[in-house]
Specification:
With 541 residues, this protein is an alpha/beta fold. It is 42% helix and 16% strand.
Length: 541
């Protein structure tokens, strides 16, 4: 359809039922120019009527319903970003918005980011994965001393299948400092540690009502992972925790009446650990499971189901909310902001990519079992080199079995040092962090090979975070297609430049834009088509 056919930008759909309502008001209240209509709708608190004047459709900025006057096609209420999503989510996590900035490991979702967002009422999760516990504790102290007890913040707990003690020690820290919101990611089954966190925050008032002090946000992409957390904790796990003194008998009793997770984040095609699932399939599926189990158990507070993965533009966020997501989560786009803990060089690379400039590569923390993460492929050889190491790991049972030409090739091209030196550095690292890993490697040559290969996989993300110029072709940068979509949306605006991407500004623009597009969906439901130049929301200073 030609733009001119839209007239002032609004046109009624053919064969749409007519309305019997009328509107009465001063002609001065009618807006008919496209630019004025777009500006008025962009002021998100503005309310308006849709009026058919005989010469076309206009927005009425005031007036009232009446028995006489122009035909009234509908009413568009205000739609501020704060009004989107689930209210209980906002209350439990002390946030103004049904949104949070998801954790990115190694402190890329930094204390600075959490604090900056928290001061403005936005929830953010500190990226504790891969950091020494002393660094995590420092971040806790910094965030708590700055934000206090009223501003929102969360801490991430990432699954560590090769080091379960690390999970326990990290959770011990969270309990010690009274962290009220924990985002758990990459878990592949029911974790007693997560049950411990949830149950240890339960108590009840004199009237018997259960008080939930600990809120657990679980990021998932599979039904078999989500479903156990949508149920109360198993008796066997609760009894074991009571026997260990980790929770009280009273807390175990109360845990029978609440789900393990308070929130399930449905993670679709995201950065880092992902199954590349399409959100339009996965989100309704998990919502149906949630609704079935809510009916079965009758919780006082239903589990909230949020959306993550691929959310890099206002329209994508609005789409997730229109599908019934209780809240939304961003990740890749946050990494490109000034407050993230990665290097300026990585932020420059991220600002240049398209949606197709990402691919799957071996995950450093779950290398042996073949788990992959989504990373940047433009400007780095990490995905291909990581996959090469995984193929060698699958083919041989020890470093010694690798043919000499192949070993020399990976030493020269990938490690840039001989493997004996890499092993010595690995021994030094685990002597400080977890000597048990070395004992296991000395008994199992294949596991020793995995630790050596994980040296490269782990170093590649730290080289990127530090912006090490000489290892740029080995950068491991966790990134999903949302980053490319964000770049396309911001093209030509002030947010196109990396130096202008402040986290609060980016978040505000995304959510305000989502509110704008949510208003347009209301117009669509009233039978109103919009011209293309009304169906846009550009970043505005």
């Amino acid at each position: 359809m030609l733009l001119t056919e839209y007239g002032n930008g609004l046109i009624k759909k053919k064969n749409f039922p007519s309305h019997s309502f009328k509107w009465r008001g001063s002609p001065d209240l009618l807006i008919t120019r496209k630019e004025a209509i777009h500006h008025y709708l962009s002021q998100l608190e503005n309310q308006c009527y849709l009026v058919e004047t005989g010469d076309g459709i206009a927005l009425a900025t005031g007036g009232e319903y009446s028995n006489s006057g122009y035909d009234c096609l509908g009413f568009v209420p205000g739609m501020r970003a704060e009004w989107l999503g689930n209210e209980q989510f906002k209350e439990d996590h002390k946030t103004k918005f049904a949104y949070y900035a998801g954790a990115m490991a190694s402190g890329i979702a930094s204390a600075d980011m959490v604090i900056t967002l928290g001061k403005q009422g936005y929830l953010a999760s500190f990226g504790a994965g891969g950091l020494p516990l002393i660094r995590v504790e420092e971040a806790i102290k910094q965030i708590q001393s700055t934000l206090g007890n009223t501003a929102p913040y969360a801490f991430n707990l990432i699954h560590s299948p090769s080091d379960p003690q690390l999970e326990k020690n990290c959770l011990d820290l969270y309990l010690k400092y009274g962290i009220g919101s924990v985002e758990a990611s990459a878990f592949m089954g029911l974790s007693p540690q997560l049950v411990r966190y949830r149950a240890s925050g339960l108590s009840r008032r004199d009237n018997g009502k259960i008080v939930e002090k600990h809120h657990l946000i679980l990021k998932i992409s599979r039904r078999e992972v989500a479903e156990p957390y949508l149920k109360p904790a198993p008796e066997s796990v609760l009894n074991q925790l009571v026997a260990q003194g980790a929770i009280t008998a009273e807390q175990a009793y109360l845990a029978r009446y609440v789900p393990i997770a308070t929130d399930i984040t449905v993670e679709a095609d995201s950065a880092g650990h992902t199954d590349n699932r399409p959100l339009v399939c996965l989100l309704p599926f998990i919502q149906e499971i949630r609704d079935r189990l809510q009916k079965e158990f009758g919780y006082g507070k239903p589990v909230r189901v949020g959306a993550a993965g691929g959310l890099g533009t206002p329209n994508s966020i609005a789409a997730a909310l229109s599908m019934g997501a209780d809240y939304v989560v961003t990740g890749s786009v946050n990494q490109a902001c000034l407050e993230s803990g990665t290097s300026a060089r990585v932020k420059e690379l991220l600002a240049q990519i398209d949606m197709a400039d990402v691919m799957m590569a071996p995950a450093p923390d779950m290398f042996e079992i073949g788990v992959k993460v989504q990373v940047l492929k433009r400007g780095t050889f990490y995905p291909l080199r990581g996959q090469k190491l995984y193929e060698i790991y699958r083919a041989y049972n020890s470093i010694e079995e690798i043919p000499a030409p192949q070993r020399q090739q990976i030493e020269r091209q990938i490690f840039q040092k001989d493997l004996d030196t890499v092993w010595n550095e690995t021994v030094e690292f685990f002597n400080q962090r977890n000597p048990g890993q070395l004992e296991k490697a000395l008994k199992n040559p294949k596991y020793k090979m995995a630790l050596i290969f994980r040296w490269y996989l782990g170093k590649s993300s730290s080289w990127a975070k530090a912006g090490l110029t000489e290892r740029q072709m080995d950068y491991q940068v966790w990134c999903g297609p949302a980053m490319g979509a964000f770049n396309e949306w911001t093209k030509g605006s002030y947010l196109e430049k990396p130096e202008n991407r402040h986290i609060v500004d980016v978040t505000r623009q995304l959510l305000s834009g989502a509110a704008y597009f949510s208003r347009l969906r209301l117009l669509d439901g009233m039978g109103i088509n919009l011209s293309p130049d009304l169906s846009v929301y550009h970043p505005r200073r």
